[in-house]
Amino acid sequence: MSSLFPRTKPAFQAEYEMSCNTHNLKYVMYFSMLACLVFGIHLIHHFRLGFGALNPEMIPYTLLYGFAIIYSAFNILFLSKLRNLPALEPVASFIEFTFPFFMAALAVLLSGLSANFGLGVTPFAIIMMVISFTLQGQFKLMCCVVALAFWTLAIVLVFTTGPEVYSPLIAISFITSVACIVIANLTERMRIRQFEILSELNRNNRQLQMLSQQDHLSGLLNRRAIDQILERELSRSERFAHHLSLLMVDIDNFKHINDAFGHVFGDQIIVEIADAIKMHVRDVDYVGRIGGDEFLVILVETHHNDALQVADRMRNEVYKLNDKYKDCLVSISVGHGISEGESHLALIEKADKALYMAKNAGKNKVRSLFSTPAKAQ
Known about the structure:
Strand order of the largest sheet: 2-3-1-4-5
Number of helices: 11
Low-confidence stretches: 371-377
Largest sheet: 5 strands, mixed
Number of domains: 2
Helix content: 55-70%
Structural class: alpha+beta
Order of helices and strands: HHHHHHHEHHEEHEHE
């Protein structure tokens, strides 16, 4: 039975519901504009009759057209504004769901009036088709609205017209209702299929983009990605006058580790050191591997002293690995540079010089290359 009702896969359900809400809002806005135009033209035509628009035969049409214009204008004016206010989002959703019920009531009343004048149930057929397109992601609700409208119209026709009139009109209304449900079912299935294909493509694209920026061994950012981020963050720090610190990290004696214990063990050390470094950065910071045994750490909005404390915590964290690897001395040296208006390459060179200072000081050290700007006169 569930196959009769089109549904997206569970993995896409929440995302599809959000997409449907957005599209339903758009449809309500478009059809509200169309309703204002169509019913406005009809209302103008009725007022051309002068006082004839207020006679007993015409006043139901006049009132219906007027009310339809007021309701549609309300949607156009307020619905988009309500959507921008999270606290009033339930009100906006209520208005969206009210729209098909309002249109269904309009279809029943207009078709009932038209039938009495021998004009058939054309409004019912047109408005039911509008409803079938309006409720994206709400197929069951759409079926309920169409079924309720059909039975209401059938009752209205039975009580207001004779058998020779209501019999064919009820048959036409029934065929129209079934056709709308079938069309809505097929349309919803196509919408779901298209949405799933596009969502899958977007996910694959995001995954490919992530893989293109990721170092295959450590899972950190690769050289190209970290360079791009450093350029972007330098521009941002200059624009907002924020501090930006850069750490260059190098594994001490890594060539000896590879030669003595093998490249597989060396790869394992790289992964564990990468994890140790990530333990001491925030979500807003960036860590990348730029070479076999070298890493770059971008510390956003971080001053000189705070950056040195972070670097020292990283160094201590890595040194704890010696409790695990008794036969292998594992340590890192860290060079620090802080942005002072230079290019990203100049900042990397500054951190690299500081790294050599740490190496020359005996390794397993943190050093900084930082010049304090002269105070403004």
